[in-house]
Amino acid sequence: MKQVTESEKFLFDIQGYLILRDAIDCDLVEALDHAVVQNEAFDHDESWADGLPIVTAQHFIKDHNVEHQVRLNGLPRLDPIFDRLIGHPSVLPYLKEFMGEPQLVNTWSISKYEGRSATGWHHGLPTEEYTVRDSMIRSPMLNVVTMLTPNHPGDGCFIVIPGSHKKNFNLNPRWRIAGLNTPGAIEITGDPGDVMLFTEALTHAGAAKTTTRRRTTLQYNHVHRNRACPITVGSPQRQTLLDVSIHSRAF
Predict the structure, then answer these.
(1) SS3 99
(2) DSSP string spanning 21-50?
């Protein structure tokens, strides 16, 4: 198994994210992208949600309630090709190094189209929960973003405020949806097959989409296994990394 270098540890700790170039081979990227396009092309049976209470950030299999964007949720239920990113050898060493015992709990794709506006800054983990003790990095929640299409300026890329996972001051409300005009903000660019890992303590958002081509990424969200509920396991790929099945859960 690949060893995470000292330079990579340093960069992840000081930035809150790390870019792995050409982490996923082109054949798999093409297959994953094809599966996304296919599943975006039709409406899914959402009857499983009948009678469920409406909650904040409720998601269906296919979300298209945001203008110029399509989101698919629970990817491994939609096509077995998505299982091939679970515990991928290019990514797993980093999950173990930065989390200890990673547990996949959520998966989704996002395709942005021209006109998608910038999103607001947010983070999914309190900054005090990101720690480094005796040279051991621990982020209880970590997101893995796989780029399936070009992520170039204007494509609606991820934007982050490097180092904000250690911030001591809250972001001024006037910068809430300021995007790249926010002090310290940068755009994460890359090409198909590149992967971005980031601690959910990092303040991040999405830039406005101004180019005409589709921009698609996959997001595999992990927590430390102590935060996840054990359920019966599914495929061998899941068993390599997980003690929980995501086959029957709605993400």
Answers:
(1) helix
(2) TT-S-HHHHHHHHHHHHHHHSS----GGGT
Q: Which helix (H) or strand (E) holds 218?
A: strand 215-224
- State the residue range of the domain holding 24: 6-39+59-168+182-241
The CATH number that applies at residue 124 is 2.60.120.620
- pTM strictly above 0.85: yes
Which helix H or strand E contains 194, and what residues bound it?
A: none
The domain total for the chain is: 1
* Amino acid residing at 69: Q
Tell me: the pLDDT tens digits for 69-86?
Answer: 999 999 999 999 999 999
Distance (Å) of CA 217 to CA 36, 110, 171, 228, 250:
10, 6, 26, 24, 19
| 209 vs 187: CA distance, rounded Å | 12
Q: Is residue 25 part of a domain?
A: yes
